[in-house]
Design a protein that fits this description.
The complex is a heterodimer of chains A (about 350) and B (about 700). Chain A is of the alpha/beta class. Chain A has two domains: about 230 residues, 3-Layer(aba) Sandwich (Rossmann fold); about 110 residues, HprK N-terminal domain-like (Udp-n-acetylmuramoylalanyl-d-glutamate--2,6- Diaminopimelate Ligase, Chain: A, domain 1, 3-Layer(aba) Sandwich). Helices cover about 45% and strands about 20% of the residues of chain A. In chain A, the strands form three sheets. Chain A has a six-stranded parallel beta sheet, sandwiched between helices. In chain A, strands 9-13-12-11-10 form a five-stranded mixed beta sheet, sandwiched between helices. The mean pLDDT of chain A is about 90. Chain B is flat, with a radius of gyration of 32 Å. Chain B folds into four domains: about 280 residues, Rossmann fold, CATH 3.40.50.261; about 160 residues, Succinyl-CoA synthetase domains (Rossmann fold); about 110 residues, ATP-grasp fold, A domain (Dna Ligase, domain 1, 2-Layer Sandwich), CATH 3.30.1490.20; about 110 residues, ATP-grasp fold, B domain (D-amino Acid Aminotransferase, Chain A, domain 1, 2-Layer Sandwich), CATH 3.30.470. In chain B, helix 10 packs across helix 16 and helix 12 packs antiparallel against helix 13. The model of chain B has no long low-confidence stretch (mean pLDDT about 90). Chain B starts with a helix and ends with a strand. The chains are: A alpha/beta (about 350), B alpha/beta (about 700). At the A-B interface, helix 8, helix 11, helix 12 and helix 13 of A face helix 4 and helix 8 of B.
């Protein structure tokens, strides 16, 4: 049996696809393994790669999370690891252990296809090393989104790595028709297969307040029990009170970032559909804002960054599915089964394709 | 409705948390009740004491064994709930919770307050407070509060959200001699709120004027109904703080409630006949004149003065406040001319000259008040060497008795010399001010009330035939399914059309050739606009192209728009491009809606297009009580109306068509409360008909 290597850009939903497929394969009587050679740096309050923790739990793997994700792509990884050869060795050892216990290994790529390319440990090299077929996961935003997939597919072929195809994931509703009618054909014209078009589903793809908290740190002042609220939008509250309400009303399930001293902005946000209130500048808010937030079931996070820094940090937030998140896990499985070419993907795994 | 009688006129009162220690509130309240001359039964409650202030003490309300009408609770917050439950067991109907430590302190306090409200609800208890100063009625008499002092008996009810304001005013009133019927400190308004007390004060025969100081309104819909009914019977004067940006922020921090838009408050007050004041001095100036003077039929004011300058100042104020200077009839003018010195001014303002003694004032005042064209008089007295302030005051009191239907206000411009006269006036029910503008301001309040007291019954949003609610439901369901909050222009247009609002036809095209097909159907020329719910200001980013006359122009414009938008908003979701039939230019107007948190939909009308923010020519109405008469009234309030009537030889525009659009918009947002914001800007107004060009809708 062969392996699959899921790569793509950060936040494109690689783990959800790998998870959904793994569950499907398991139902088919196979023993899927999971491997993430280059993990994501830990958040403010976790040390292990969260995807590895999830897959270990859901697939009942007997390995430690650190074995499933042996390396971490920190901003100082070259200084930290120093020796590319040693890194390759660590990865190979982990892989060998995982492969020995599995029929097929679903390999989860790093944040970007070129992660650790400086050590020669990018997706193209590792896919060849582990005899895995590459699947490129792509969240389309506009025509330009297609370029990266096409470029990567061609590079893979030129390097003689197996390239299974592209999965369009988290496709916004407005782009669904275009993806099905135009993007698929354009890729086919380049000899690239489309293995799935998965419509956007905020329950699965949108980050939750917990992920925001993980990224930002800070203190939770209210709504501790609502960290599972999903966040679909981020708005900054820096307007006058007259304009605030109209502005906040335009957006659902949003995070509102504003200064801790702006009670009236915070209260306006709480009158609309707000998933989390992020108060900046370390300014502890008026207790009445917290009482109102508790009343409305909206978490309040107090951070010490200024508003601009907070927004910059939020750009990094993406959804992490947790092992207790049964609904999202079930949804991941359903999405793969319903919207991906499951026969083709299975065929790649069983080695009957390509 | 006499539901609050047990609060203001209880036959028995329990003080729960009564204390022996005279420093403690539990003792202050008990003694306040006793000292106020309360004639009912008083039961101190405290499980640890036997006798307080010579009264037998009970361990709990339920152990008193006789009916208790009112319980005043002053135990620590964490024990209030238990006390309330005990009161419920004992059948108490009203409790006043003085104790703090509730919503105002944060999350825990909020939970405690909710539990308290729930307990009271279960037992059918009405609750005042918590976190309040208490309640007083000077006619019962009862002082169930911890204020230092008891107001003079009078006919003004004062309801205050600020306890501090209440005690300060009480102290001030004792000095100025102003009497009150009731004082109510609202506290956190967990149950009883301003509307309940306004409603009750209307039925209280001892109350003539209702004064309120509020920071927010708890239940907007209830308030509107109550205020509208109340002001048809008695004047309601309201000081609502938090109008400035900083003030709104302070109010939010103070009450924990979003203040809501001040425009909405202003509109709500106007529509319900509430007289709004903006300063504390105005609040009490108005209270004084309402309590002591009749409400004039209309706004014609006579001024009698012994000094020319102040007379002119008063005249200026009268005009500025929207009052009128009375025009005397020939008889009045003749008799004034006959009796007054030659150099006196016998037209309004009547100048009786600096050497005037009481006789001249008395004569002139009698003449002008006898004139049918006069509704009220302002008498200015400057401290000249011959002035007789006390005698003049007596003459004013006399005139006030003779002309009981006309209001008389005095302005004693000075200090020492006039003090005795001013005091005489106050004591005899003639409001006396130091400066003319204050008197005129107060008179303005009286005249306003005279105008609105007998206003017609409020209207209601008109019903229209041929409205297609199902189409609207379908469109909204689709938007909700996509988890969007803002509608595409094409969706908003469909909704408007379904409600009979004339719209310049609009279709969404996903591809250029679709756009061309739409244009052929609609007829050239057309306008192309980007179709994205995320892009509000389409023109700013090159998302609009007008005057397209051929398929080639449409194709070119289609891709140009898509490219421009992609450049400016690379992450925005683009649904396509909207094709709209290009209509001839009309006068650009705006019809808008914003759902206010307290008062519901608020409709705006005015000059539209690019002038909205520049000219700010907009009038507002709440959809509550907005019938056709109110719509026409709103239209008339704008400069746009002047334009529509035909400005400087222009042909008049179709006002009925606009009234119809406003009414239908009102109907739409009433039928679909999920619509929280709506803007039709511009509406092109024509000599015949009107058309909505651009419609934005936000839903909840």
């Amino acid at each position: 049996m062969a392996n699959l290597y899921f790569t793509g850009t950060a936040g494109s939903g690689k783990t959800a696809i790998a998870l959904g497929l793994a569950l499907y394969l398991k139902e088919q009587g196979l023993r899927p393994g999971y491997f993430k050679p280059v993990g994501i740096p830990p958040g403010a309050r976790t040390v292990e790669d969260r995807d590895a923790v999830l897959m270990r739990h859901v697939l009942g793997l007997k390995f430690e999370a650190q074995e499933l994700a042996p390396l971490v792509l920190g901003g100082y990884y070259i200084s930290n690891y120093k020796d590319p050869e040693r890194c390759r060795q660590v990865i190979k050892e982990s892989y060998a252990k995982i492969k020995a216990a599995a029929d097929t290994v679903l390999i989860d790529g790093g944040a970007r296809p070129w992660a650790m390319a400086a050590f020669g440990l990018d997706a193209l090299n590792l896919a060849r090393e582990f005899e895995a077929a590459l699947v490129y996961i792509l969240k389309p935003a506009n025509d330009r989104s297609l370029d990266e997939a096409a470029f990567f597919a061609r590079s893979a072929k030129e390097r003689q790595a197996a390239f299974a195809g592209v999965i369009f994931n988290n496709v916004p509703r407005a782009l669904l028709a275009k993806t099905e009618g135009i993007y698929r054909d354009v890729l086919a014209g380049q000899g690239i297969a489309t293995l799935g078009i998965v419509p956007s589903s905020p329950e699965l793809a949108a980050p939750t307040v917990a992920e925001f908290y993980e990224t930002l740190g800070g203190d939770i002042l209210a709504g501790e029990d609502k960290l599972g609220n999903i966040v679909e939008d981020v708005l900054v509250g820096a307007m006058t009170i007259e304009s605030a309400l109209g502005y906040f009303r335009r957006s659902a399930n949003k995070a509102v970032v504003t200064g801790g001293d702006r009670s009236e902005i915070a209260l306006a946000a709480l009158e609309t559909d707000t998933a989390v209130l992020i108060l900046t500048g370390g300014l502890y808010p008026n207790v009445k804002v917290l009482a109102r937030a508790a009343e409305k079931g909206v978490p309040v996070i107090l951070v010490h960054y200024d508003t601009y820094t907070t927004i910059e940090k939020l750009a990094e937030v993406s959804r992490v599915i947790h092992s207790g998140d049964t609904r999202a896990i079930a949804l991941a499985r359903e999405s793969v089964a319903a919207f991906c070419d499951i026969d083709k993907l299975s065929a790649w795994v069983r080695g009957t394709f390509g | 409705m006499h539901s609050l009688d047990a609060l203001f006129r209880p036959e028995s009162v329990a003080v729960v948390g009564a204390s022996k220690n005279r420093e403690k509130l539990g003792n202050v309240i008990l003694r306040n009740i006793l000292r106020s001359g309360y004639k009912g039964l008083v039961y101190p409650v405290n499980p640890k004491e036997q006798v307080i202030e010579e009264l037998k003490v009970y361990p709990a309300v339920s152990s008193i064994g006789r009916p208790v009408d009112l319980a005043v609770v002053v135990v620590p917050a964490e024990r209030v709930l238990q006390v309330a439950a005990d009161c419920g067991e004992a059948g108490v109907q009203n409790i006043v919770v003085i104790s703090a430590g509730f919503k105002e302190t944060g999350k825990e306090g909020l939970a405690r307050e909710r539990d308290l409200v729930e307990t009271c609800r279960i037992h059918g208890i009405r609750l005042l407070g918590p976190n309040c100063v208490g309640v007083m009625d000077t006619h019962t008499p009862l002082n169930a509060s911890f204020a230092a002092g008891f107001p003079l008996k009078g006919d003004i009810a004062f309801v205050s959200q600020s306890g501090a304001m209440l005690v300060a005013i009480l102290d001030w009133s004792l000095q100025t001699g102003l009497g009150f019927s009731r004082f109510v400190s609202l506290g956190n308004k967990a149950d009883l709120n301003e509307a309940d007390f306004i409603s009750d004060a209307v039925t209280d025969e001892n109350t003539k004027v209702i004064l309120c100081y509020i920071e927010d309104i708890r239940n907007g819909a209830h308030f509107l109904e109550v205020a509208d009914r109340a002001t048809r019977v008695k004047p309601v004067i309201m000081l609502k703080s938090g109008t400035s940006h900083a003030g709104a922020q302070a109010a939010s921090s103070h009450t924990g409630a979003l203040a809501g838009s001040d425009i909405a408050y202003e509109t709500a007050f106007r529509q319900t006949g509430v007289i709004r004041v903006h300063t504390m001095s105005e609040l009490f100036d108005l209270a004084t004149v309402f309590a002591r003077q009749p409400v004039p039929k209309s706004a014609r004011v006579a001024v009698v003065t012994n000094a020319g300058g102040p007379g002119i100042v008063a005249t200026d104020s009268i005009e500025a406040k929207g009052l009128e200077m009375a025009r005397f009839n020939r008889d009045t003018v003749e008799s004034l001319r006959r009796e007054l010195p030659l150099e006196a001014n016998v037209f309004n303002p009547v100048d009786v000259l600096g050497d005037a003694r009481v006789e001249r004032f008395s004569f002139a005042l009698d003449r002008v008040l006898s004139d049918e064209g006069t509704d009220s008089a302002v008498v200015l007295v400057c401290p000249t060497a011959v002035a007789e302030p006390v005698e003049t005051a007596a003459a004013l009191v006399e005139a006030s008795r003779k002309f009981a239907q006309k209001s008389i206000l005095a302005v004693y411009m000075g200090g020492e010399t006039l003090a005795a006269g001013a005091e005489f006036l106050t004591r005899h029910g003639i409001p006396c001010f130091t400066f003319p503008e204050l008197a005129v301001g107060a008179l303005g309040g009286l005249a306003t009330y005279g105008r609105i007291k007998d206003r017609p019954e409020k209207g209601s949003v008109p019903d229209y035939e041929e409205i297609n609610r199902d189409t609207v439901k379908k469109v909204l369901a689709r938007v909700q399914e996509e988890r969007r909050r803002t509608l595409l222009g094409s969706e908003a247009a469909r909704i408007a059309e379904a409600y009979g609002i004339p719209v310049a036809p609009l279709r969404l095209a996903r591809r250029a050739r679709e756009a061309v097909a739409h244009a052929a159907e609609l007829g050239y020329p057309v306008v192309l606009k980007v179709g994205s719910p995320e892009i509000i200001h389409k023109t700013d980013i090159g998302g609009v192209r007008v005057g397209l006359k051929t398929p080639e122009e449409i194709r070119e414009a289609f891709w140009e728009i898509m490219d421009r938008v992609n450049q400016h908003f690379p992450h925005a979701t683009i649904y396509g491009v909207e094709v709209q039939k290009m209509y001839p230019r009309g006068t650009e107007l705006i019809v808008g809606v914003s759902r206010d948190l307290q008062f519901g939909p608020m409709i705006a009308f005015g000059l539209g297009g690019i002038y909205v923010n520049l000219l700010k020519d907009v009038a507002f109405r709440l959809s509550w009580g907005m019938g056709e008469r109110e719509i026409r009234e709103m239209v008339r309030e704008t400069k746009a109306y002047t334009l529509m009537r035909g400005y400087r030889g222009e042909k008049p525009l179709d006002i009925d068509a606009m009234v119809n659009i406003i009414g239908r918009v009102g109907r739409l947002v009433t039928d679909f409360p999920e619509i929280v914001e709506m803007d039709i800007n511009p509406v092109f107004s024509y000599q015949k008909g009107a058309a909505a060009l651009d419609i934005k809708i936000t839903i909840e």
